[in-house]
Design brief:
The complex is a heterodimer of chains A (110) and B (893). Chain A has 4 helices and 3 strands. Chain A has a single domain (13-109), classed as Arc Repressor Mutant, subunit A (Orthogonal Bundle). The longest helix of chain A has 27 residues, at 83-109. Chain A has helices spanning 13-23, 28-38, 47-59, 83-109; strands at 26-27, 63-69, 75-81. Chain A is α+β, with helices and mostly antiparallel strands and 110 residues long. The relative contact order of chain A is 0.16. In chain B, helix 5 crosses helix 17, helix 7 crosses helix 13 (326-340) and helix 28 crosses helix 31. With 893 residues, chain B is α+β, with helices and mostly antiparallel strands. In chain B, 54% of the residues lie in helices and 16% in strands. Chain B is built from 31 helices and 22 strands. Chain B folds into 4 domains: 24-71, no CATH class; 132-369, no CATH class; 373-543 and 762-892, no CATH class; 566-742, no CATH class. The chains are: A alpha+beta (110), B alpha+beta (893). Chains A and B meet through helix 2, helix 3 and strand 3 of A and helix 1, helix 2 and helix 4 of B.
């Protein structure tokens, strides 16, 4: 029996999406598949949370969306990280590392 | 720059909302198709692949909703959506929405315009004064009797002491008023204001020519005068070379130094005491020394001996500093009087009042005309009633609509709308209604104020506090009655609302609610209209037809101080004048009185009440006949009364009888202290005369005494002409010349001219007319609201009528049914409303002096009108429904 899927820790979905599209632009379905693959399908990310998150990143100017042909030759909206998106990713990564590092230290040494 | 990006995104979406929605849809379709393709590749059959992909997606519309709810500016989008929906709903019910908006707009207009008018009338700045906000009045008062504080007559020492105590805040001017005899060379009796040297500076008053009154080199006031613009143009032909000329005031030579600007008429635009010239304060004592009436003014002239102190603050914000000084100034006055031995009170003859003093510092503008100060607060609840009736209209229509919309709410809850969403929607509807009413009211308020400004020639501004309170009332009413029932509907089970098989169906509970609303509206309207008519009656002028027509009544005033006539001769003079004028064939009736005099009266048993001042005074001759006042009860004065026979008697007017003795004044005993005398005399009321508009523009309680109670040098002759007052004028002039050629008139005019010169008169009439207009407005609003509610209630029964007609009922029977029901509701509501109106009337009568219970005739007419409106509101929509084929009605609902 597969382990029950868990919610993405609050506030980290934006970080994960930015990181996933850092290497190459991706469409919504691609982001979802990649996330499942890399996390062994651990997180319960639904389209109902993915698309609002993509919209939020786009509204903040951290990603831009443009319509291109997909691998199946269908038109899909690809999201590409912007310069300010990269800066935001750096900030979010630093923050995450600091927080998880601190938690790890407590768990190890307490 | 995150916010900039967000705003760009919001604006982009607003610019092209459809494109945005299409893009979202395409993106989700792509997502779905990609998932379906992946599942097919994994071996699922296409149909199963699509089914499972759709399940995983959770529904395209649901995801779209998530995206919409989370995007930037989502709150604004929802609000806009709600507003659009609200406007659509209001358009769907144009009659009831229009009624709510229209009646609330009218109510708001009544409130804002009435209060702006009252505010402008009570507090309008007097013209010709620079920065009136910086002027304050300083008064010294002492506790008098049990009913409050009275003003002390200050001496010049008192002025100096107070001025020194407050001089760091600004200069203080003092002035006094009196009537003086002036030779220009024509002998005239004129109103003079005696002023300190800094008077014109303190008021910031300009001069048309010359310079203000100056203080002489020796410190003593030089005998100089500044003329009023009116006197200069009227008597001296506006001759600019008049400056430097010598005139004689009370026999003293005085040099004219200047003429005041046209718009400056003293601190209060009081037509009775408008100054003709200004003289130095110091001249007063010399004028007094030349009269045969030592301290004559203390007994006879209400103008003189009232040294008034006005200061100009450096800054208008210093009022609180000045007021904080009042306690210290009172102590200073007490100390000077008690220990310094300084006579701060002008009249040596006055018995020294108790030594407690209080200094009162008020902005000069707060002084208001007495009658307006009395009438305006009484009239002010009337616009409030108009607004309340408008709000009751709105509330009932909103309640009726909310009851009808229970099914709509139930459907929306059943298909997934949250209760908060529904409440928000109705809140927005209420706000849209209030907003529409406000927008509709703005042009009406604006034109109403401009119209009043053109009529009265002084600026009127809406009062911010009243506007806020009005808007808040409307908002609370709209929200309370728009959202309240929806909350109730939303909190119950949607099944209840859905049980109605059709939108037009009416449950027994709804039917009861509608009838209760109609009855409630009728009861509230009748109660409020009864209350309003009672207050309107209290502010109304007595009938314009009552009394002698103003152009037929001649008024001639005299001040015998000017010719230094000894006391024993004054009564002889007036008796002679009265006898000769009365004997003339042109004269119908004539009488003598003292205009504006007052009588201090309290009713027996002594000591039960503290009494108060009433207008009235001594009268001689056929004054009541001359003024056209009918004796309602008892008798008029006889010659025996005038010769002082016992018991002493008095006649009161109807307002006095109503206010003091609840209409039973005849035979009652009063203790009176006529103005200017100290002795209290018991008098018996032997007659009651009609009340009528006197100088103040409306009937005030008055007490009249026969002339024998005391001689006075200042009196007015009232002569009723058989033709016109103008024709009588030369006759009266000739009579006076014949009796004593030295005596000049202080005023001679017809009552009509007297009214015209009185700026209070149009205001008083406007106030009375405003009361009537507002009353009609309230009645119209009540009728309108009742019609809208009733017709709405009947119109929603069209499906029921269709069923009845399909079963064989005829139009006539339908009309009889609704007419009968309207009659029942009118009967119940009318009876309850009458009961409420009577109870409210009695409560008002018991608590507010000067009000009487509204007439039963007016109440019955109002009830009949509203019942007729209800009948029409039932029959018209029912007839309309009956004209349509029952099949069409049943099919379309």
């Amino acid at each position: 029996m597969a382990a029950p899927r868990k919610d993405v820790p609050q506030g980290t979905l934006d970080l994960l999406i930015l990181r996933l599209i850092l290497r190459e632009p991706m469409h919504g379905y691609g982001v979802m598949q990649r996330l499942r693959l890399l996390t062994d399908d651990m997180f319960q990310v639904t389209p109902g949370s993915l698309f609002p998150a993509l919209q939020r990143l786009e509204e903040n100017g951290w990603v831009v969306g443009c319509w291109n042909a997909s691998e199946n030759n269908r038109k899909a909206k690809y999201y590409e990280i912007t310069k300010s998106g990269r800066k935001q990713l750096d900030r979010a990564e630093d923050h995450w590392n600091a927080v998880t590092g601190a938690i790890a230290r407590v768990l190890k040494e307490a | 720059m995150r916010w900039l990006a967000r705003w760009q995104s919001i604006l982009g979406r607003w610019r092209r909302p459809d494109a945005h929605e299409r893009a979202l849809d395409a993106e989700l379709q792509t997502y779905l198709q990609a998932d379906v393709d992946a599942r097919i590749r994994a071996g699922d059959p296409p149909a199963e692949a699509r089914r499972r992909a759709l399940i995983d997606l959770g529904g395209i519309e649901a995801v779209k909703t998530d995206v919409r709810d989370h995007r930037a500016g989502a709150g604004i989008d929802t609000l806009a959506q709600d507003v659009r929906y609200a406007l659509r709903t209001l358009r769907k019910h144009p009659a009831s929405s229009g009624s709510v908006v229209g009646s609330v707009a009218l109510g708001m207009t009544a409130m804002i315009v009435s209060f702006a008018f009252a505010n402008a009338v009570l507090y309008r700045p007097t013209p010709g004064i620079k920065e009136p906000d910086r002027l304050i009045e300083i008064r010294v008062e002492y506790p008098e009797r049990a009913n409050g504080w009275s003003k002390l007559r200050l001496s010049q020492n008192g002025y100096r002491a107070l001025a020194a105590g407050i001089e760091d805040l600004g200069p203080v001017a003092a002035f006094d008023q009196r009537i003086v005899g002036v030779t220009l060379p024509a002998a005239l009796s004129l109103h003079a204001t005696l002023v300190t040297g800094n008077y014109f500076d303190v008021f910031g008053a300009r001069l048309a020519i010359g310079r203000p009154i100056s203080v002489g080199e020796t410190g003593r006031d030089a005998d100089t005068a500044v003329l009023s613009y009116r006197l200069w143009t009227r008597e001296l032909g506006a001759d600019p070379s008049i400056v430097g000329h010598i005139i004689h005031v009370g026999g003293l030579p005085v040099q004219i130094t200047g003429v005041a600007a046209e718009d400056f008429t003293g601190p209060w635009d009081d037509p009775e005491n408008r100054p003709d010239l200004w003289l130095p304060l110091g001249i007063g004592q010399r004028l007094d020394a030349m009269t045969l009436w030592p301290n004559a003014w203390t007994r006879t002239s209400r103008l003189a001996g009232q040294l008034r102190l006005v200061a100009r603050l450096q800054d208008a914000h210093e009022l609180s500093h000045a007021q904080a000084r009042a306690g210290a100034l009172a102590s200073l006055v007490e100390a000077l009087e008690d220990h310094g031995g300084v006579a701060l009170i002008w009249a040596a003859g006055d018995s020294k009042p108790a030594s407690t003093r209080r200094v009162v510092i008020t902005p000069l503008r707060e002084r208001v005309r007495q009658f307006l100060a009395e009438s305006v607060p009484l009239a002010m609840p009337i616009p409030i009633f108009v607004l309340v009736i408008a709000c009751v209209n709105a509330a009932n229509l909103l309640l009726a609509r909310a009851t009808d919309r229970e099914r709509e709410m139930a459907v929306r809850i059943a298909i997934g709308a949250s209760r908060s969403r529904i409440v928000r929607q109705l809140l927005v509807e209420s706000l849209v209604l209030s907003g529409a009413a406000t927008i509709a009211a703005i042009p009406v308020v604006w034109s109403g104020l401009r119209m009043l400004e053109q009529q009265f020639l002084f600026p009127m501004q809406p009062n911010a506090g009243v506007v806020t309170a009005t808007f808040a009332t409307v908002l609370i009413c709209a929200i309370g009655f728009g959202v309240g029932p929806a909350l109730r509907a939303a909190s119950g089970s949607p099944a209840r609302g859905l049980r109605q098989s059709h939108a037009g169906d009416v449950t027994p509970r709804q039917s009861f609610t509608r009838r209760a609303l109609v009855v409630g509206q009728l009861v509230v309207s009748l109660g409020l209209l009864g209350m309003g008519s009672q207050l309107i009656a209290a502010t109304r002028l007595p009938s314009k037809d009552a009394g002698t027509p103003p152009n037929q009544l001649l008024l001639a005033s005299f001040d015998l101080n000017q010719v230094n006539m000894p006391a024993d001769q004054t009564e002889r003079f007036y008796t002679e004048i009265l006898a000769r004028v009365s004997a003339r064939p042109e004269v119908e009736a004539a009488g003598v009185t003292y205009r504006g005099a007052s009588v201090f009266a309290r009713h027996a048993p002594f000591g039960v009440d503290d009494g108060r001042e009433y207008l009235g005074g001594h009268i001689a001759g056929d004054l009541f006949e001359a003024r056209g006042l009918k004796v309602i009860a008892g008798r008029t004065f006889t010659s025996a009364d005038r010769q002082g026979s016992r018991p002493r008697v008095a006649i009161v007017n109807e307002p006095f009888s109503t206010q003091v003795f609840k209409g039973q004044a005849l035979g009652q005993i009063l203790e009176v202290t006529p103005d200017g005398t100290d002795a209290a005399t018991p008098v018996q009321i032997v007659g009651v005369v009609e009340g009528m508009a006197v100088e103040t523009g409306h009937a005030v309680p008055s007490v009249y005494l026969p002339i024998s109670l005391g001689p006075e040098p200042i009196r007015t002759l009232f002569a009723k002409s058989r033709t016109t007052a103008a024709a009588l004028m030369p006759v009266v002039r000739q009579v006076v010349r014949d009796v004593d050629a030295r005596v000049a008139f202080t005023k001679i005019s017809s009552l009509a001219d007297d009214h015209q010169s009185d700026p209070n008169m149009p205001l008083a009439m406007a106030l009375a007319e405003a009361g009537t207009v507002l009353g009609v407005m309230a009645l119209a609003l009540a009728a309108w609201g009742l019609y809208a509610l009733m017709s709405h209630s009947v119109a929603t029964r069209s499906r029921e009528f269709a069923v009845r007609m399909a079963l064989g009922a005829e139009t006539r029977q339908i009309l009889r049914l609704v007419g009968w029901q309207a009659g029942w509701l009118a009967g119940i509501g009318g009876s309850l409303g009458t009961f409420v109106a009577v109870v409210i009337g009695l409560v008002i009568q018991a608590n507010f002096q000067g009000t009487v219970a509204a007439g039963i005739g007016a109440h019955l007419m109002t009830t009949a009108l509203l019942a007729a409106v209800m009948f029409a509101a039932s029959v018209v929509p029912a007839a309309r429904a009956a004209r349509v084929s029952p099949l069409v009605l049943l099919k379309d609902g």
